[in-house]
Write a structure and sequence with these properties.
The protein folds into three domains: 90 residues, Ribosomal Protein S5, domain 2 (2-Layer Sandwich), CATH 3.30.230; 38 residues; 138 residues, no CATH class. 65% of the residues lie in helices and 14% in strands. A four-stranded mixed sheet has the order 1-2-4-3, with helices on one face. Strands 5-6 form a two-stranded antiparallel sheet. Strand 1 and strand 2 form a beta hairpin. The longest helix has 69 residues. The chain is elongated and about 120 Å long. The model has no long low-confidence stretch (mean pLDDT 84).
Length: 283
């Protein structure tokens, strides 16, 4: 959701600068700064921002700079003269001195904008510049999205590789558990019913079986990839799927009962946390 766009428009006697910055946010939080002349178009500008950027903390600033006399503010001479007469009278009565003209120019409504209404031509140019600026942010976001996808793909592959690395450890774990139980029974020096022993062993190993977790985790990883390739605004969906991936990884860890598997699970959790951080940047 991060992006920046800037557009400068040159009009007769005036320069307009449009700057838009977008940061990560769960919703569309728009902060708009406009010259008073453009206030009548605030609703339309907000619609353009919300439609184009969807989500994010969006700061949009539009600045207007006078570059020619035709756009310079006009002095309300009648009002200025009235202020000046009153200030002179006050200065004489209090025996005060000072820059009366400077004081007058700071009085309310002495300076008036040369334009009382926004012309249709100027609005068309402004709206076009706003759309161009939003397109720049869209390109910025697309480039960032490509980099994010590359990073997430790498981490998804690391998790998938971890799943494959667990497979040979499961057979090793079964042999180790069976040997451990046998040694324990030998130390007790009692007769053992081999059929009953096999039944109990199978029951114990079934409680530690992670086949279902691996199947579900693989399905979640595939679905995550599908959502990224879909091209829609899937940020929230990706967040939900990453939570499901986390549940399966946690269950793998709780059932592992094997140092090597636990180590792999820790690595998978680390990769998932980094994926979750990146998902926050996706619309």
């Amino acid at each position: 959701m991060t992006g920046f766009g800037k557009k400068v428009l040159q009009l007769p006697g005036k320069k307009i600068t449009i700057e838009i910055k977008s940061l990560n946010s769960k919703s569309a939080d728009i902060n708009l700064r406009l010259p008073s002349l453009y206030r009548s178009k605030e609703g339309v500008i907000r619609q353009h921002l919300a439609k184009s950027l969807s989500r994010g903390k969006i700061d949009c600033s539009i600045f207007s700079e006078v570059t020619g006399i035709e756009s310079a503010p006009q002095i309300n001479e009648t009002l200025a003269q009235g202020y000046l007469l009153q200030l002179k009278k006050l200065a004489d009565s209090t025996n005060s001195t000072g820059d009366l003209i400077g004081a007058v120019m700071r009085m309310p409504d002495v300076l008036q904008s040369a334009e009382s209404e926004l012309s249709e031509q100027e609005w068309e140019l402004l709206e076009g510049g706003l759309i161009e600026c939003l397109d720049l942010i869209g390109n910025f976001r697309s480039d960032e999205g490509a980099r994010l996808k590359e990073d997430i793909d790498m981490r998804l592959k690391n998790i998938s590789d971890g799943l494959e690395a667990i497979i040979p450890m499961e057979e090793e774990r079964t042999v180790r558990i069976k040997d451990k139980l046998m040694r324990g029974l030998e130390q007790l020096k009692v007769e053992v019913d081999q059929d009953r022993f096999e039944q109990e062993l199978i029951y114990y190993l079934e409680k530690l079986d992670v086949t279902e977790e691996k199947v579900r985790l693989r399905a979640h990883l595939d679905y995550f990839e599908e959502l990224m390739l879909a091209g829609d605004e899937a940020g929230k969906k990706l967040g939900f799927v990453s939570q499901e991936i986390g549940r399966e990884i946690n269950t793998l860890g709780s059932k592992a009962n094997h140092a090597g598997m636990q180590k792999i699970v820790v690595g998978m959790k680390d990769e998932l946390e980094k994926i979750k951080e990146q998902v926050l940047n996706i619309l």
